Amino acid sequence: MRPHTAASHAPRGHWLLQTAGISLLVNRRGVAAGLTLLLMAVAVCVASLSVGTPTLAPFDVLSAMLGAGDPFNVFMLQELRLPRLVAGLLSGAALGVGGCLLQTLARNRLATPGIIGIDDGATAFAVASIVAIPTSLAPPMLALLGAATAAALAFGLGGGGSRGYRFIVVGIAVGALFGALTNFMLARTSIDAANLAYPWTVGSLNARSSSTVMVLAGCLLLCLPLAKALARQLQLLRFSDAIAIGLGVHVRRTRLAILVVTVLLTATAVAVAGPVGLISLVAPEVARHLTGHRGVPVINSALAGALLMTAADLVGRTAFAPVEIPVGVITAIVGGPYLLWILLREPRTPGT
Q1: What is the C-alpha to C-alpha distance for residues 33 and 13, in angstroms, rounded to an integer?
Q2: Helix or strand or coil: residue 55?
Q3: Residues 6+ apart with CB under 8 A from 313
Q4: How far is residue 251's CA from residue 175's CA, in Å, rounded to a whole number?
Q5: Is 271 left (phi over 0), alpha (psi -120 to 50) or beta?
Q6: Is the dihedral of CA 261, 267, 272, 278 positive or negative?
Q7: Contact (CB, 8 A) for 285 and 109
Q8: CA 113: distance to chain centroid?
Q9: pTM of this prediction?
Q10: Alpha carbon distance, N-terminus to C-terminus of the chain
Q11: What is the distance of C-alpha 301 from the center of its chain?
Q12: What is the residue-level pLDDT of the chain in tens, covering all 352 positions?
């Protein structure tokens, strides 16, 4: 595939790639934004592996990752810092993509998995598997079931996701219901069980299960191409249902597919990192701002989510050392004011 030499064949600000009768229009600013986010994420990854107690030089980090050098450094990098970094990258990317899909589907920036209750549903079911319901199912499996239940309630009662503010209000009510259920279970259980369930109530990347991270990696590998494939039809859903149908979109099937992808990404991310919902609010907005067009920036949302999650975890781990602040607290401190800004700013056209 090569760039077309005739600039007049491509709209301004785009590349037209052609090969074997297949044409692909690529937004230049979107590519530049993706490369910028990728480079920033790499820089944060290097800092995350290097900074801490002790702080390591980049060469020592590389040696430890290859299994050479000081045995303590090898253990710290391979068993502590690197798994935590991978968990942050994957969960942040999954939350970023889930937020991008849901915001576009509902035509509202507030429609994120955290705000409409999907995170709360996953958390409630995961906590229930620890403190309330004796079961052989692991908390991540119950988190997936809880996310699906919350999404079904929000979409069923909120008009299928097509009625912006009604969908959000219903989602907030569903989230409040599951949040109250979580608090009730924690209040009625023993202190030991509550401590065991605590990581599921606040976002944290500390000591994540490797099997759960692998499940998230597989889910992301499956869902990211699906999300990218659905992006064009999702963009057409910004119009009314009648127009979208006229343009060849199977509206109900597309909405269901987007819901399934969002639930899978959100549930597996919550299973790894806990409810860090504000990543799904901020990451797509960062991607849209950098990309600068009205497309559906799936890949850039994933990169922005990974960047924000790992940066927040780095700050929480090092800023107040030796005291560690959970990543969910850091994202709430940053994302809370941003949420207020969205609510108080001058409204723009619907769906933006």
Answers
A1: 13
A2: coil
A3: 48, 84, 88, 205, 327, 330
A4: 26
A5: alpha
A6: positive
A7: yes
A8: 9
A9: 0.86
A10: 33
A11: 8
A12: 454 544 446 667 667 666 766 666 677 788 888 999 999 999 999 999 998 878 888 888 888 888 887 888 888 888 888 999 999 999 999 999 999 998 888 887 888 888 888 888 888 888 888 887 765 566 777 888 888 888 888 888 876 655 567 778 888 899 999 999 988 888 888 888 788 777 778 788 887 778 888 989 999 999 999 999 888 888 877 777 777 777 777 778 888 888 889 888 988 888 888 888 689 988 998 898 888 767 788 999 999 999 999 999 999 888 887 888 888 888 888 877 877 776 676 555 434 4
AA identity, residue 82: L
Q: Which of 98, 40, 43, 61 is nearest to 276 (CA)?
A: 98
- Amino acid letter, residue 43: A
Q: For the range 322-326, what are the long-range contacts, defined as Cβ-Cβ under 8 Å and sequence gap of 24 or more? A: 322/53, 324/206, 326/202, 326/203, 326/204, 326/206, 326/274
Q: Please check whether residue 108 is in contact with residue 165, taking contact to mean a CB–CB distance below 8 angstroms.
A: yes
CATH topology of domain 49-72+83-344: ABC transporter involved in vitamin B12 uptake, BtuC (1.10.3470)
Q: What is the DSSP string of 120-179?
A: HHHHHHHHHHHHT---SS-HHHHHHHHHHHHHHHHHHHTTTTTSHHHHHHHHHHHHHHHH
